[in-house]
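Quick review question:
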């Protein structure tokens, strides 16, 4: 396998919504430092991105919106375009910083498309809520959608997008809701209980793309085993039927039980299990081609650096043993900056991620979502929604 590509430069820290905003770029810096201290990035040439140009942004965004983003730091709030809200405050250099995030995911996509890497990862990406003409949910430009659009124009006829963020991947779903070439799958906290209030099982696509928008709305409190039970009951079968040529995954870690903005109850061990499974599915269904990006995650010290270090390690085939202790230098730097921070001892939450497959044993809380999604989607792919073998 060609060496995986890792896109990173400190300039990506410029996507900074400021003040006490939860989308704090320090989570990226701490992740890279932790991965470096653990040797995950030893010998890896980090790829330095440039900003996406307007032509690339126009793949999914309206020209008037792009201009509004450019002008906002000078003109102030523009609520019609979602700029200047509590979620998406205006900041200096907003267009440039946002375009750089898109450019970083495009660089990762390009490395795969050009055959220079089979896998690529950009933890600064994953801005999956941005809409064609509006900022939304901390996201100004939608790097995921732009990269998928670019891939469709550069040799890929079928793209599978799997979103593991706690929030529904609404922006990406919107971009490809009527495009049968893109399978979007989102596993998220039930929209009745969490913003953005979309992502019901009945949202299946339209205009000849019915069955290519897939949503698994999970009940609050879902733990690792339930999440993985739901994933396995839906995703592998659909990937097998859809036959994608590349797997794009948004790997938000706000599904963790300590995340302050949501109510799922996954662990760092669960996140590690998800990444390993995504890697397996890419090997099985897309000849190993896998583009991974970051996303949400708001427990900045205890969760994001550990989970995304596992992501980097998984993409690089340098899996970190969960029993690994956190490096003393990394811990000391955190302690100096935040003396009251409670730092976990190692790369695990000591959780068992085993699960009972759907169709075996008694019903679990996630089974309503599983049944609703399978019944909405599986017949459109020639699969039996009630047969656990499909």
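Suggested answer, residue by residue:
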């Amino acid at each position: 396998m060609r060496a995986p590509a890792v896109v990173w430069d400190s300039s990506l820290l410029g996507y900074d919504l400021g003040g006490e905003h939860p989308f704090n770029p320090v989570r990226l810096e701490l992740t890279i430092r932790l991965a470096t201290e653990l040797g995950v990035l030893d010998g890896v040439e980090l790829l330095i991105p440039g900003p996406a140009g307007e032509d690339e942004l126009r793949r999914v965004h309206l020209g008037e919106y792009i201009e509004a983003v450019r002008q906002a730091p000078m003109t102030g709030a523009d609520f019609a375009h979602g700029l200047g809200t509590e979620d998406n405050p205006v900041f200096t250099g907003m267009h440039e910083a946002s375009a750089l995030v898109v450019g970083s995911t495009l660089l990762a996509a390009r490395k795969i498309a050009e055959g220079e890497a089979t896998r690529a990862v950009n933890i600064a990406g994953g801005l999956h809520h941005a809409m064609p003409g509006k900022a939304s949910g901390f996201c100004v430009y939608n790097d995921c959608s732009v990269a998928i659009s670019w891939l469709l124009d550069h040799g890929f006829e079928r793209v599978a997008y799997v979103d593991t963020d706690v929030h529904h991947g609404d922006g990406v779903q919107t971009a490809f809701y009527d495009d049968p070439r893109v399978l979007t799958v989102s596993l998220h906290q039930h929209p009745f209980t969490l913003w953005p209030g979309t992502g019901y099982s009945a949202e299946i696509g339209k205009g000849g793309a019915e069955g290519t928008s897939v949503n698994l709305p999970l009940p609050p409190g879902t733990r690792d085993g339930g999440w993985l039970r739901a994933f396995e009951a839906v995703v592998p079968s659909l990937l097998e039927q859809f036959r994608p040529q590349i797997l794009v995954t948004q790997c938000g870690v706000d599904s963790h039980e300590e995340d302050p903005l949501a109510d799922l109850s996954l662990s760092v061990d669960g996140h590690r299990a998800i990444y390993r499974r995504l890697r397996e599915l890419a090997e099985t269904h897309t000849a190993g081609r896998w583009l991974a990006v970051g996303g949400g995650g708001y427990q900045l010290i205890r969760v994001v650096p550990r989970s995304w270090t596992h992501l980097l390690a998984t993409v690089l085939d340098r899996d970190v043993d969960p029993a690994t202790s956190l490096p003393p230098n990394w811990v000391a730097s955190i302690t100096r900056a935040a003396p009251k921070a409670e730092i976990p001892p190692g790369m695990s939450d000591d959780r068992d991620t085993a699960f009972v497959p759907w169709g075996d044993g008694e019903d679990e809380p996630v089974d309503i979502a599983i049944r609703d999604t399978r019944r909405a989607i599986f017949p459109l792919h020639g699969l039996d929604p009630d047969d656990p073998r499909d």
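Why it works: The longest helix spans residues 94-113. The mean pLDDT is 97.
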